[in-house]
Amino acid sequence: MPELRPYRGDYYLWLYIPSPAAGGLFTALFALGTAAVVWRMVKCRAWFCTVFVIGGLLEVVGYAARAVSENRTEQLMPYVIQSTFILVAPALFAASVYMSLGRIIRSINAESLSVVPVRWLTTIFVCGDIVSFVVQASGAGVMVTADSMEMGENIILGGLFVQIIIFGLFAVTAAIFHVRARRYRMSAVLEHDTQWEKLMTMLYVVSVLIMVRSVFRVVEYIMGHDGYLLAHEWTLYVFDALLMFGVVVIFAWRFPGNLRPAKMDAEEIVQIQQEGVVAPEK
Fold this sequence. Notes:
Elements lengths: L19 H25 L5 H18 L8 H32 L10 H25 L6 H34 L5 H5 L2 H29 L4 H4 L1 H21 L12 H10 L7
Helix pairs in contact: 1-2, 1-9, 2-3, 3-4, 3-5, 3-7, 4-5, 5-7, 7-9
C-alpha cells in the first residue's frame, strides 16, 4: 500500500498520495495534444508556436512526475518537477496567444486599428509574460522547504497577479481591435475573409481558460499550504489540468498558422486606406 512519507523530519511535501492513474491519463492527453500542435506547426511553418510546444512538453513532464510519485512522496525531485512545470506551462501558452494577435492584425492589413502599435504589441505582452514566468518559477523553487514556504507562496502569487494583469490588458487590446475591425466589414478584404474572426474567437476562448486557471491558482496560494485546494488533488485536475488540456486542443484545432498579409488589388487598397483600415504602403 502506498504510504505518505515525510521529506525531512515531520515536513511533508505532499498532503495526499498522488494518483498515478490521473497523472498517467493527463500525461498521455497532453502528449497527444502537443503532438497535434507540433504537426500543425511544422505543416504551416509557424515557428512562433514553438513556445506553445515547450509549454505542452512541460505539462507532459509535470504530469508524468505526478504519475510516478505515488511511492516517492518523500523524494524532492519529482515533487519540484511537477509543481514547477505545471505551474509555469500556461505562461508559455499565453505567450503564443499574444504573438498570434499581432499576426492576425497583419493578416488583414489592419495595423492602424490596434490600440497598441503592432510592432510593439508582441514585445510588450511577451515581456510581461516572461516576468510572470520567471517570478512563478522562482517562487516554486523557494517553497520546497518548510522554512521558506510562505515566502515562496507570496512570490508565486506575485507572478500570478502579473499574469492576470497582463492578460486583462491583452483582452482589452484584442477587444478594441476586434470592434474597430468589424466596423470595416464593408471593405472587400474583411467581408470575404472570415478566418481572422474565427481565430479571434479562439484567442478569446483560450484566454478565458487560462484566466480562470490563473484565478484558481491565486485562490489556491492565498489559502496556503494547508488550505483545501492544495490539500485535495481533484481541484488541480478540474481547475488546471482539464482547462489547460482544453487550451491545447482548441489551439491545435483552430491553429493560427496560415497568417499572411492579405493580397489586395489596387482598387481595394485605395478603398481600405480611405476607410482608415491601413496606412498607405511604403
